[in-house]
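Question: Hello, beginner here. Any chance you could explain the protein record under this note? Any guidance would be welcome.
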Amino acid sequence: VQLVESGGGLVQAGGSLRLSCAASGSTFSINTMGWFRQAPGKQRELVAAITSRGGYTNYADSVKGRFTISRDNAKNTMYLQMDSLKPEDTAVYYCNAEAQYSSGGLRYDYWGQGTQVTVSS
């Protein structure tokens, strides 16, 4: 599985960005997907996650009500709509996918290369 993020950039506080994560390869094996972020000097943290059919989503408290995660399995793409951005949202955002190639088999984690999001005050 290969993951490629796009959509990052520089935005003013209060603005919006939409991140995309395009998956390729053995996409049939992908279960849960998520967005993580890592700010300078801080640990990588979960931002949002979504199950394989989008029936369940989970958000970090810091982004609830501002960010929306979604996925389009027909396009093998996951999205993160980020509204009301704050300077503290500045970080490198990473796409993550959990894959399982057989029922009951091992689970594998895949990561994208990351995309920079910078929010100016």
